Amino acid sequence: MSTSTLIAIVVAAVVVVLAITVTLAVLARRRHLRNRFGPEYERTVEEKGGVLAAERDLHAREVRHDKLDIRELPPERQRQFADRWSEVQVHFVDQPAGSVDEADDLVAKLMRERGYPTDGYHGAVRDLSVEHGRTLEHYRAAHDIRARSTDGRATTEELRAAMVHYRALFDELLTDQRSR
After folding, report:
1. Is 165 helix (H, G, I), strand (E, B) or coil?
2. What is the mean pLDDT of the chain?
3. 145, 100 contact by CB (below 8 A)
4. Which residues contact 55 (CB under 8 A, 6 or more apart)?
5. For the segment 41-60, what is each residue's pLDDT rounded down to a tens digit?
6. pLDDT of residue 18
7. From residue 164, how far is each of 21, 99, 100, 122, 168 by CA, in Å?
């Protein structure tokens, strides 16, 4: 076998190995993002118009999230938040729209105390999506109902649903106390 033939075979083998390595790395990254973000992965693919743009966005969210100082709450603070939630629920009977506003405020306060920036709804969604992608739809639904409630366009049943949605995220933020 000539030297040039041997070099061509080695170069071809290296190219194939590199292609396989890159493909496996891309697939591993995709699997990681799908697992971490859950339903938020597909939502972002749709929103961004493609897998690559979505994966860049989700990766940027991870990088940003890793810089946050997400902290646990001491048991006493957890109890105080839980007690405050109970009060908000009791208010629902007399003031459904006001209770939804209170629930939104309480979720924001819990986020802030845990270390999540609360620089607006879209920022909160971005930051929550990394660790709470599976309950993020609850937050979106509650936010939408609250916005309609502000305009007087939400029924009492929708306001009740908003409370359930807020509760799902609230419970997860309150009980998911693993160190990041």
Report:
1. helix
2. 95
3. yes
4. 29, 30, 33
5. 999 999 999 999 999 999 99
6. 96
7. 46, 12, 10, 21, 6
Distances (CA, A) of 64 to 5, 36, 118, 180: 49, 15, 14, 13
CA distances from 25 to 17, 36, 54 (A): 12, 16, 17
Give pLDDT, residue 119: 82
Q: Is 1 helix (H, G, I), strand (E, B) or coil?
A: coil
End-to-end Cα distance, the chain: 57
pTM beyond cutoff 0.70: yes
Per-residue pLDDT at 154: 97
Lookup: tokens for 154: 């939400």
Of residues 11, 177, 179, 148, the one with CA closest to residue 79: 177
